[in-house]
Every structure is written in structure tokens, then in C-alpha cells.
Amino acid sequence: MKITSAEYLTPKRNKINKVGIEPNEIVELPEDVTNVLVIEEGKDTQLQRAIEILKGNN
Predict the structure, then answer these.
(1) Which domain holds residue 42?
(2) 6-18 tens-digit pLDDT
(3) Residue 55 pLDDT more than 90?
(4) Is 52 part of any domain?
(5) Considering the domain boundaries, does residue 45 fall inside one?
(6) How far is CA 8 from each of CA 15, 17, 24, 33, rounded to the nearest angstrom?
(7) Residues whose CB falls within 8 Å of the CB of residue 45, separated by 6 or more in sequence, listed in order
(8) Distance between CA 30 and CA 9 in Å, rounded?
(9) 25-41, pLDDT tens digit by residue?
(10) Neighbours of 17 (CB within 10 A)
């Protein structure tokens, strides 16, 4: 018999199974977005904010 188990850990070894990770930055999507899987790039506020952060425009 072989049993495999795994846990998800952060780099500091914190367990995140069934807990998740709190984001550093919370960005809401516009109210008119009805399908989060299909968002026009111009309306994707989360993507736009991520690009700003990566470019250093905090």
C-alpha cells in the first residue's frame, strides 16, 4: 500500500490548506462585469492594478 499526502506551505512554512492567503492589495471588479472568466482588458481593474504595481507605479 502506498499513501501520498501533501500540504501547501508559504515560504515561511505557514500552512494554507483550506485557509488561503489574504491579498496585500484588494481591487474590486466593476459592477457591470458579469462573467469573471471573460473580462475585457480595459475593464479588468485587477489586471491593470497588477501592471501598475509591477511597473513601480504604486
Answers:
(1) 23-58
(2) 888 899 999 998 8
(3) yes
(4) yes
(5) yes
(6) 6, 6, 19, 31
(7) 27, 28, 29, 30
(8) 32
(9) 999 988 888 888 888 88
(10) 9
